[in-house]
Design a protein that fits this description.
The complex is a heterodimer of chains A (274) and B (531). Chain A has 274 residues and is mainly alpha-helical. Chain A contains ten helices and no strands. The radius of gyration of chain A is 22 Å and the shape is elongated. Chain A starts with 5 loop residues before the first helix and ends with a helix. The chains are: A mainly alpha (274), B alpha/beta (531).
């Protein structure tokens, strides 16, 4: 097992920690986050409240756990949208390289790329109303061209190989070849890109929630915890630092995991390690 | 004078080279011959101190009596490109695509402090002219992609000899080139060696190339030099059985039984294939390039037909049309009297299958052999006994049934080519297209695959369309041959007639350019064999 890249261990560990916290929050949290308890507001970290309480007396640890759930759910679904729509588009573009379809897909991609993603996400959520669902859609749309481009690039290099020609001589259609031969061979690229987009999704969700366009009260979210804390940044910086650190650790963990996976799945690197 | 004594090398504990002795005198060409994995390139990298991590070297390597400063990277950098330089097999990847050829040649001069930029460019121009790239046709500001393979290799040579090195190492310098280009590059190297009195270490798998080039030949096998000596004496003597085996494999002609019938199998009539080039104006029609212009020939049942030509002559394009992967713009292709088109019925498509050149790219690395070989059943539907059929066809190509559950990377190049042949044969086609199917293989493996192909043809009455740039191979396995140039067939006829009395000047130049071992040296060999 020592052959696994070290950053994979650290990254996967951090990511798993937050995922476990999020899953655990469905079953149990130290305190109920929807109950305000002004009597115990702004308590510093103690045995009773591990990370202290906020200005409404809510337990910060419980808030972080439930907030992780929101962040991860938004990011997972947004990446899912990107993969489910982007990858088939990219595969189609690669299969019909140089055709009008390729042009249409890639220029469409460029169009989406040309807009600053967070600004458009704000526009979408502002137009259709702030909610976690709209945040998911807004972030997801900007994942589509990323995956389309990665899929197309990887697929094009596979299309030139002889085994694709052999499959065509066997009468297989381009759709079938894309599914059977191309997709499994670019899966490593997509997995790595997936972890990166996932971390960007976490950041984007935090950003949207921060400006009040993401998850709505009383659902806790890391971005909203930051926003709530900003008025008390000088008196109680702990309130901003805690969710801020959570975001940093989660994004760092995912990026490290992406790096590690890339090394692990790259057959050239794997060979020199072996 | 470069000398290597008792060079041994192990990488991560596995022995790569053992007790290699080699001397290269100024003005001398030393040929290092061997099959892939024999350690020839590692010998060169050991000299240059460019070995991969985990390498342990023992032995002495001297330049003019002084030991090479291996391990001292700064001292080695001063030597590399200056006193010892190297050219490689693939000139496209050996050159930086975003720098002009002038900059790349000048770079060596500037790095070694031999000239300032302006002066270096001037010397670069001289060097490029010397290697056959005159400034009026190939100015310094050309980029590698604007040149042909042979011209790129000339740039690499200019770069390597810019500082008059004592030693030039050429690692398979012409393997990626066409036969006529190969002859020109070899001539150039020979001239440069004589002119600059440098030593040339010529690494190649091709005995005929060293026969024509080298003064001294060393034959390498599994990390050891099994035999070395002056070229002529070595070829006449062939003291070591491996040298003889290599020699015999390189001119191997499989035993063939003729089963040619008169019934036509594949008829190509006036086939035309155009490609659209990138548009030059926004609304005008895209310009077209005619890759195949009016090709006609007939391939009879059971016949083996060769198609010879250099890269870019249109043979791959023609192959794709014959396989029914791309449409023709004119003419027609008939298989058993039925048209071959991209939309043809699966049953007709099952009648023709193909084996490709690259034994590594021919298989989806994530599939087992069983699944790979069974892929063509997509055309006919998988019969219930498909596993038995896969087993039978693997047996036919000389592979055990236990290969079925293994993955392609577990096999050697030759075994992979057998798997590719099995995949092509599973539907029992009448026509097998062999697209450079043995070009990437070592000579001994190539001989085995050629024997297998001859055997399969005799047993199954297959017809072959054998596409290759290698005249020797085509000569051994075909009944008739077509010579293709710039999209047209310039000559066709009986293989023996075409090779012994070529009619077209192009065929003549192709045959003339192919390196050969002088027949006088071989006679001595054959004579010895008969005794």
């Amino acid at each position: 097992m020592s052959r696994l890249p070290p950053q994979l261990w650290v990254g996967a560990g951090l990511s798993a920690l937050f995922l476990t916290a999020a899953l655990l929050s469905f079953l149990w949290t130290p305190y109920d986050v929807e109950v305000l308890n002004i009597a115990s507001k702004l308590r510093p970290p103690s045995v009773e409240f591990w990370l202290g309480t906020d200005h409404f007396g809510r337990d910060m640890l419980s808030m972080l756990m439930v907030g992780a759930r929101t962040s991860i759910a938004v990011a997972v679904i947004a990446v899912g949208i990107g993969i489910c729509i982007g990858v088939p588009l990219g595969l189609a573009a690669a299969a019909r390289r140089g055709s009008w379809l390729d042009e249409l897909i890639m220029r469409g991609n460029d169009l989406i790329f040309a807009f600053p993603s967070l600004v458009i996400a704000i526009l979408i959520t502002a137009t259709f109303g702030p909610s976690a669902t709209n945040a998911i859609l807004a972030i997801g749309i900007f994942n589509i061209p990323v995956f389309a481009r990665v899929a197309r690039g990887g697929a094009m290099s596979i299309w030139t190989l002889d085994f694709i020609m052999a499959a065509r001589v066997s009468g297989k259609s381009i759709t079938r070849i894309s599914a059977e031969h191309i997709l499994p061979n670019i899966a490593n690229l997509l997995i790595v890109q997936g972890t990166i987009q996932f971390s960007l999704g976490i950041l984007a969700e935090a950003g949207l929630s921060y400006v009040g366009l993401g998850a709505q009260p009383p659902t806790p979210s890391w971005g909203r915890m930051l926003a709530d804390a900003q008025t008390m940044i000088y008196t109680t910086p702990r309130l901003a630092i805690t969710p801020g650190l959570a975001i940093v650790m989660m994004v760092l963990g995912l990026n490290l995991m992406g790096d590690g996976l890339r090394d692990l799945l790259d057959p050239r690197i794997r060979r020199t390690r072996a | 004078m470069i000398s290597i004594r008792n060079l041994s090398l192990s990488i991560h504990g596995s022995q790569i080279l053992r007790d290699v002795d080699l001397e290269i005198a100024p003005g001398q060409v030393v040929g290092l011959v061997g099959e892939s994995g024999s350690g020839k390139s590692m010998t060169a990298l050991a000299l240059m101190d460019l070995l991969p991590r985990g390498a342990k070297v023992a032995g002495e390597m001297d330049i003019d009596g002084a030991p090479l400063p291996h391990g001292d990277d700064k001292a080695m950098c001063a030597l590399r490109g200056n006193r010892m330089s190297m050219i490689f097999q693939e000139p496209m990847s050996a050159l930086n695509p975003v720098k002009t050829i002038g900059e790349q040649v000048a770079e060596t001069l500037i790095i070694h402090g031999q000239a300032a930029r302006a002066g270096a460019m001037e010397i670069a121009a001289q060097k490029l002219t010397r290697v056959g790239l005159p400034q009026d046709k190939f100015p310094l500001d050309r980029y590698p992609h604007e040149l042909s393979g042979g011209q790129r290799q000339r740039v690499c040579i200019a770069l390597a000899v810019a500082l008059h090195p004592d030693l030039l190492i050429a690692d398979e310098p012409t393997t990626a080139l066409d036969v006529t280009t190969q002859a020109q590059i070899l001539d150039l190297l020979k001239e440069l060696v004589a002119e600059a009195q440098m030593g040339l270490l010529l690494i190649t798998h091709d005995l005929a190339v060293v026969a024509g080039m080298a003064d001294h030949v060393a034959v390498m096998k599994s990390g050891e030099i099994v035999e070395q000596g002056p070229t002529e004496a070595l070829f006449r003597g062939m003291a070591h059985p491996y040298t003889r085996a290599l020699f015999n494999a390189s001119k191997h002609h499989p035993e063939r039984t003729d089963k040619v019938t008169d019934a036509p199998l594949l008829q190509v009539t006036e086939a035309v294939r155009d490609y659209a080039l990138p548009r030059t104006s926004l609304f005008g029609p895209a310009p077209k390039f005619r890759a195949v212009g009016g090709v006609s020939f007939t391939l009879k049942k059971g016949e083996s037909l060769g198609l010879v030509g250099e890269s870019g002559c249109g043979k791959s394009t023609l192959t794709r049309a014959i396989l029914g992967l791309e449409p023709l713009q004119g003419g027609e292709i008939l298989l058993n009297g039925q048209p071959v088109t991209p939309k043809m019925a699966p049953k007709r498509r099952a009648g023709l299958q193909v084996v490709f050149q690259d034994p590594y790219g021919s298989f989806n690395p994530r599939w087992t052999v069983e699944r790979l070989v069974a892929e063509p059943f997509h055309l006919t539907g998988r019969p219930d006994d498909w596993r038995n059929r896969v087993r039978a066809v693997l047996d036919d190509v000389g592979l055990d049934a236990d290969t079925m559950h293994r993955y392609p990377h577990e096999f050697s190049g030759g075994q992979r080519q057998r798997i590719a042949i099995a995949r092509a044969l599973i539907l029992e086609p009448e026509l097998l297209v062999l697209d450079e199917a043995v070009s990437a293989l070592d000579v001994s493996v190539r001989a085995q695959i050629l024997d297998l192909l001859a055997d399969l043809q005799a047993r199954r009455g297959l017809a072959y369309l054998f596409i290759s740039h290698d005249l020797g191979v085509v000569r051994g396995i075909t009944d008739r041959v077509l010579v293709m140039r710039a999209g047209e067939i310039v000559e066709q006829g009986d293989t023996r007639d075409v090779f012994s009395a070529p009619q077209h000047p192009y065929t003549n130049s192709l045959i003339g350019a192919a390196p050969v071992i002088p027949s006088a040296w071989q006679e001595a060999q054959d004579g010895q064999f008969m005794v």
